[in-house]
Amino acid sequence: MTSPSTNTLDHIVHLSHPGALDETISRFRELGFNVIPGGTHADGLTSNALVIFEDGTYLELLNFVKPAASYPAGSPERAKRDSHPWAPKNPGWIDFAFLGTGEDKHSGGTGVISEIINARSKDVRYLGEVAGGRETPAGKILKWLITSPAKQHGRGVLPFFCGDVTPREWRVPVTQENTAHPNTARGVAYIVLLVSSDNLALLSRQVTTIIGAPANHVDDELSWSLETIRSTRPAGHLRLRSPKTEEEQSFLDSNIDANVGIYEVGIWVDAGKSKEPASLPHTRIVWQSIIN
């Protein structure tokens, strides 16, 4: 059996303040994105909306339904809310996912993706699959398996993997209507991870282990090609570098993880449609023209 890819971009996660998802949806629509309803996740803590691209990738606009303080202190509900991996995150780009598998756990308790990555190097460790899901506004129940990096790596530093148990088109309905964006967005051109210079070499080795291919070096930046579910556009890239400007250093200093964070997302748009970068609160988007 052919081993699954470990560098296929699935989606990028954007976090809003609790209860502020509608405001974020409005802001993304003002930027020319077509945003469709997502639903409520199985744990009841978060809800989302989706920006789906024709290459099968998407942006997940997510928020916690309620602030932590709305759950009684010391209650199981509060403990569940506080222990959520995205609970400590600041609003903005917080995480990204590669496509995983929907296969059951192996008898040894490890998962398909984690076995592949963990066998490559001791620099990085992934855990076994954990079940997840979401109910759509229409009442359809979606199910998937999540493979996450071990706790010591943090969340939003290395990708997690999302593998569908129910058909992927239920989770990501790639239709002409859903992928038609007024701003002509076609897909994700790149993700920029900023990292402190002290941690650059280690993170580079870890990303190389996950993707299974060495980085390309361009000036002071490292870059890896990413696959997509549908090869309709030029390849996207995961880009890694240390801060070059005061603005980038300020972003890194304010990040909850202190030494790494998703600083910028590039979006493919039709030739001639690129414009100035969009800087929503805590969110930077750069438009990348497709050269035919």
UniProtKB/TrEMBL annotation:
InterPro entries tied to this protein: Glyas_Bleomycin-R_OHBP_Dase, Glyoxalase-like_dom
PANTHER family tied to this protein: BLL2707 PROTEIN (PTHR40265), GLYOXALASE-LIKE DOMAIN-CONTAINING PROTEIN (PTHR40265:SF1)
Glyoxalase-like domain segment(s): 9-198
Domain of life: Eukaryota
One Pfam family it belongs to: Glyoxalase_3
Protein name: Glyoxalase-like domain-containing protein
